Amino acid sequence: SAVDFIAIDGPAGSGKSSVSKAVARRLGFGYLDTGSAYRALAWHVLDRGADTADADAVLAAASDFPVRLGLDPDDRTVRVGDVDITDEIREPRVSGAVSGVARVPAVRAQVNDLFRSLVAEAPYPAVVVEGRDITTVVAPDAPVRILLTAAPEVRAARRAGELSGENADAVAAALHKRDASDSAVVDFLNAADGVEIVDSTELDFPQTIDAVLTVIERLR
Ligand code: C5P
């Protein structure tokens, strides 16, 4: 399509969402948080009272899934039908269920088609698309493909800082568990051929944004 994918993958707590959003804003690009679609589907399965570990139930829910995702980096509202679930999809019950939903191959194929059509019809010159398999599966031919990484302890500390009041050890354990089940589905801890690595372990937020902008300028 005429709209470029800026593909950014990385693990939970790598700063991927905040960095991708900031980069999109800076460049006047659209922004697509693919994790929010999987989260919305997990919410939808739970809302139907179905079992998120049951692949058939998940697939049935996915075939009747009126998710509405915007591409405006300043509006991250997520809806299923008319229900605004923007905040609910960040709750631990959804985070804990999402890997199970994301494991079903037919679900991934369907969600990937949704992502590709959202980008193809986007009213932007490019869309920053962040997730786990954007550089490898959704848009392997994207002009810009970046893997954003950070040391596990740094990721856990950042995530614990975001969720004020939560126990840092519990946050680290939940993060580790989700990364482990997600890694069994797609490898987002190692860069595929041609994917640029940006390691933010030693970088603060503005420095990470600059590092990503530098890669985009060089490749696009
Ligand atoms: O990025 P975020 O942590 O919000 O993603 C939530 C979950 O969605 C991940 O833990 C993973 O199970 C799933 N996901 C995925 N593929 C993507 C993006 C997210 O499987 N491209």
Automatic annotation (TrEMBL):
Its main location: cytoplasm. It comes from Microbacterium galbinum. ATP binds at residues 10-18. Keywords: ATP-binding, Cytoplasm, Kinase, Nucleotide-binding, Transferase. It catalyses: dCMP + ATP = dCDP + ADP; CMP + ATP = CDP + ADP. It is found in: Cytoplasm. HAMAP family: Cytidyl_kinase_type1. Belongs to the cytidylate kinase family. Type 1 subfamily. It is an enzyme of class 2 (transferase). Its EC number is 2.7.4.25. One of its GO terms (molecular function) is kinase activity. Residues 6-217 form the Cytidylate kinase domain. It holds the Pfam family Cytidylate_kin. This is Cytidylate kinase. NCBIfam families: cmk (TIGR00017).
